[in-house]
Write a structure and sequence with these properties.
85 residues, alpha+beta, two-stranded antiparallel ribbon, 1 helix, disordered N terminus
């Protein structure tokens, strides 16, 4: 004998849309940038602005511009891009 399942009654709360698999790719890319030493300035579902507090270090040498801002974004085709702001 099979049992029928009935949908739960609506409670007035809106149903959440299923998570887009591209958003999980964006979350992984964002986590990688945070591990590289960037700090999060602002974040949306598909983009974020990151910054560094000081000069970058490369093999113990100091170089680059002090404080740097980057925008990381999820494009429509699923690519994650990073650009200077």
């Amino acid at each position: 004998m099979t049992e029928a399942t009935h949908p739960l009654p609506a409670t007035g709360a809106t149903a959440e849309e299923p998570t887009d698999p591209r958003e999980s790719v964006f979350a992984l890319a964002l986590a990688a940038k945070l591990e590289q030493g960037y700090h999060l300035e602002s974040q949306g579902k598909t983009d974020a602005v990151l910054f560094t507090k000081g000069r970058r270090r490369w093999f113990g040498l100091v170089g680059g511009v002090p404080g740097r801002r980057r925008r990381i974004a999820l494009e429509d085709d699923g690519r994650v891009t990073t650009r200077a702001v």
